[in-house]
Amino acid sequence: MAYGLYIVTDRVIGRGMTHADMAALAVAGGADVVQLRDKDMPAADLTAEAVNIREITEDSGTLFIVNDRIDIALASGADGVHLGQSDIPAEYARKIVPDDFIIGISVSTPDEALKARNSGADYVSPGPVFTTATKSDAGDALGLDTVFTISAAVEIPVVPIGGISGKNAASVIGAGADGVAVISAVFGREDAVSAAADLKKIIEGAKTA
Ligand code: 3NM
Questions:
Q1: Phi, psi (rounded to 5 degrees) for 8
Q2: Is the pTM above the cut of 0.90?
């Protein structure tokens, strides 16, 4: 499973765009994964967005993950769900999803990463690696050292998030990450498609370096 370029949708950063609009740009820019993330949208609207994104990603080779809402992920035919530390625990999530359903978990320490792996997570997302203005409650930056320690601690893919851009993506891969997750580095840019494509080149370059 390739997690190289993992793009998360955000209505604030994506000024005026729907989540499906953003997913289409992400796919056009070569995203390996698109995550639908919206903590405020009513479930009916979020479901409609998820169904649209499933259609957009269906034959693209881009995986589709839904943040938090395992019910909407399942109902829309998404490839997986991304869960936080206070969401339904992965071992319980596992009980209600198909075998090949992807479960990703947000972590901030090597212990949380190990616990996530032991409870059946398919990947972990340490964050915030760097300072970010996109998520106000993201907490202090973990730094590359923590990415390194977490990557060494678990054999499942590690996809850090928070403040990652074209300027520092190679250093995140260099610290052992399998991919990078971004919002503003793509949707905060005038040309999101080129921004994504440029990031993908940087990630691929860093992986073969
Ligand atoms: N989660 P940007 S940081 C959605 O630390 C999210 O878990 C984070 O946005 C975490 O790429 C974050 O614009 C925001 O920094 C990432």
A1: -105, 135
A2: yes
Sheet containing strand 33-36, edge to edge, reads: 123-126, 102-107, 80-83, 63-67, 33-36, 5-8, 180-182
The reply, when asked if residue 118 is annotated as ligand binding, is no
Residue type, position 156, single letter: I
**Domain boundaries 5-208, CATH class:** alpha beta
Ligand 1 near 184 CB (within 6 A):
yes
Beta carbon of 108 within 6 Å of any ligand 1 atom: no
> What gap in Å lies between CA 42 and CA 125, rounded to an integer?
25
Domain coordinates of the chain in residue numbers?
5-208
pLDDT digits (tens, 9 = 90+) for 18-73: 999 999 999 999 999 999 999 999 999 999 999 999 999 998 999 999 999 999 99
Please give the number of the atom of ligand 1 that sits closest to the Cα of 181: 11
